[in-house]
């Protein structure tokens, strides 16, 4: 009976419990029922810019040039470019360990520009989403790109400018070609699709071939006036870069282009479509003019 009567005196009064809490460092945190949340891990010291190698210009591929200014490596699992008006593609796997470095290039495809009407849109601020692997799992971070971007503006103009031009006229290599000595002679055809003047400003060859108009023509090479539906421009190919290095390292031997504009649009850089039949003729031209007996290279200028 005596023991049970004395038990209430051993309970700690509420005022005393409060005093103990207040005396402890961090008062309220020490008396909380939940442990404090861990501080979020610091964002990696990554920054990005966009680059494009010459070989990727016709592939809709660019490089995310990533810089790591941190003390340790960062494992990047996936990347996604968000750069309207370029269409956003799904994240691309890169699975790369980015060590502290001023630059590592991670290649990925980019979407075609959304081109509405006859106006070429201006790209807005863009960013890259990166999925990085950490001890606790994968985390997505947002890496802003420098704005404005000369490269993004050029890519949008390539897509939309070419689209505007090609809605007005088709510009193509002709189908009839003949050999004349060390040249392959034929035509470039301009055929109307919509009203308006079309100007063929210039032609571009490749690392091996020159593509030039026949005769002493200076830019602009031809104008399809509003009253005409079709125009033919005589041209010729010549294999002029026959050095062993050029023949061995040529990555775009058939990368021929034209610069074509409209009355209210400056000339746009547009690639020609080169058919398998055309490639076979050009291969024969290289064999005959660059290679001697036994397949040995001839000197070329």
Description of the molecule:
The protein is α+β, with helices and mostly antiparallel strands and 301 residues long. It has two domains: 46-148, Sandwich (Immunoglobulin-like); 170-295, Immunoglobulin-like (Sandwich). Helix content is 20%, strand content 37%. It has six helices and 16 strands. The protein has helices at 2-6, 14-23, 27-30, 150-168, 244-249, 276-290; strands spanning 46-51, 61-68, 74-82, 92-98, 101-109, 127-134, 137-144, 169-173, 178-180, 183-192, 198-204, 209-213, 222-224, 230-239, 257-262, 265-271. The strands form four sheets. Strands 8, 9, 10, 12 and 14 form a five-stranded antiparallel sheet that branches. A four-stranded antiparallel sheet has the order 4-3-6-7, with no helix packed on it. A four-stranded antiparallel sheet has the order 13-11-15-16, covered by helices on one side. A hairpin with a 2-residue loop joins strand 15 (257-262) and strand 16 (265-271). The longest helix is centred in the middle third of the chain and has 19 residues, at 150-168. The chain starts with a helix and ends in an 11-residue tail after the last helix. 22% of the residues are buried. Residues 1-9 and 18-33 have low confidence and may be disordered.
